[in-house]
Amino acid sequence: MSVDRRMTRGAAVLSAAVLVGVAGCSGGGDEAEEVELTEYESTDLTAPPIDLDSTDEDRSDEYFFVGPKSRETGTWSGRLIIDEAGEPVWIQEDDEAEKVDEPTAGWDMRVQEYEGEKVLTWWEGIVDTPLAEGEVVVVDDSYEEIARVGMGNDLPHRMVDLHETTITDEGTMLLLAYVPKQTDLTEIGGESDGWVWDGVVQEVDIETGEVLLDWSALDHIPVTDSEKEFEDGVGTEDKPYDYFHGNSVSVDDDGSLLVDARNTHAFYNVDRDSGEVNWTLGGKSSDFEAEEDLYFAWQHDVERAPDGTITLFDNQSSPTLGESSRGMRIDVDTDEMTAEIVDEFLPPVPRIAANQGSFQELEDGRVVIGWGALPSFTEYSADGEVLRDGTVGADSNYRAYLSEWEATPTEPPAAEVKTEDDQTTVYASWNGATEVAQWRVLGGPDSGARTELATAERTGFETAIPLPEDADNVIVEALDEDGRFREDPDRWTG
């Protein structure tokens, strides 16, 4: 069954006279032993299993954004937008070659704002831990690419590390890179001409590519501050010592940057103009007095919250030091130079994330924790009550976000007709469309004599719509909640 793609987006035209050769979906097949993938009739896309707690509240305008990834052949890697029912809304699947090599997945896929409009961003590239080489993709609300952002100055464009993709209010992007550099390692048992992975932070103008900030951890943070064991064979040009491992950069409330380093167990307030470190919290060289219970290790995703506290994801692993990973909120007083933990967000079941992880605070105070190496995500109320918990069938998921998103893809809907046991059914889907509430099916001898055959509520990523046995020359139309048809890219019509 073929789909005519010459129409404007909003309708898929197909012929019910040709009902043979309905192809099976790709993406797992007999090799998919780890998870049972969901397959669809209208498209060859697949999706991993998604388990998401339900809620009595209407969350139809909010979606979870995740980038599940797996390293085994036949398992699922890619990018997913998930609705309140735990159904995919948008699927972008890595191909088999990418899975077998190293998954590109959707590292740090999220909704951001650029030039006054909401955009979707993610990192894609090749991962060879700790080195990752790629760039950041920016797409609009039709999923059309509008920018690719890379490193500048003397670094290769595609040397962007996977950990950070933040767009600032100034239209710049904060980026990380792991750069091999030579340095003296004798104080930690290495050679005087040893090698480390330097943590480089750049702020790059998205439109022009101009580098506004180029910061090196090695210029400011000594290798002796690292909490990572210095093993035999490490510290050479072939195997640099990953002493810093920067994994997040965000704008602090004073306009400086918060730079987080997993392997020093610390984060840093960095002057955006001079590059000087104003203060350090955590690790061996902390500038703050803190109670013993304020301890975090191997942490990720440090940000300043609207109320002035600092939030982060505390891995406590690896190696494992605590009983559970957690989200943390810290009150930091830079006048008295004191810090204390004021809140923690524990998982609904015990979870230790050996790596990765995220902490997102929404405008109403709700919190979303992504459990990183464990492909789960949890939504909490502002006072810490678990509202929803979800898991995707994959090995891991770097970060998880919950955001509002409206999108109408450039690509038209997909549809397929199938007859089985004397029942003709049309299967309809529109990958990435958020405004579809119903499907209307028309049929008839020609375009001037079509009548309505059926109207059905959207039931998930794909909707199965029974048709009369004699249905022919079928058109499937996407309708919004008011019953309007998307006739052209700019408007819905009745």
Can you put this structure into words, describing what you see?
The protein has 1 helix and 38 strands. With 494 residues, it is mainly β. The radius of gyration is 25 Å and the shape is elongated.
Which labels suit this protein?
494 residues; mainly beta; 5-stranded antiparallel β-sheet; 5-stranded mixed β-sheet
In short:
The protein is mainly beta. 1% of the residues lie in helices and 44% in strands. The strands form eleven sheets. A five-stranded antiparallel sheet has the order 4-28-27-26-25, with no helix packed on it. Strands 20-24-23-22-21 form a five-stranded mixed sheet, with no helix packed on it. A four-stranded antiparallel sheet has the order 1-36-33-34, with no helix packed on it.
Largest sheet: 5 strands, antiparallel
Question: Can you tell me the overall shape?
Answer: elongated
What separation lies between the terminal Cα atoms?
28 Å
pLDDT average, as an integer? 89
Number of helices: 1
Which stretches of 5+ consecutive residues score pLDDT under 50? 1-11, 13-33, 97-101
Number of strands: 38
Structural class: mainly beta
> Share of helix among residues?
under 10%
Strand order of the largest sheet: 4-28-27-26-25
Kindly provide the radius of gyration, computed on alpha-carbon positions and rounded to a whole number of angstroms: 25 Å
Strand content: 35-45%
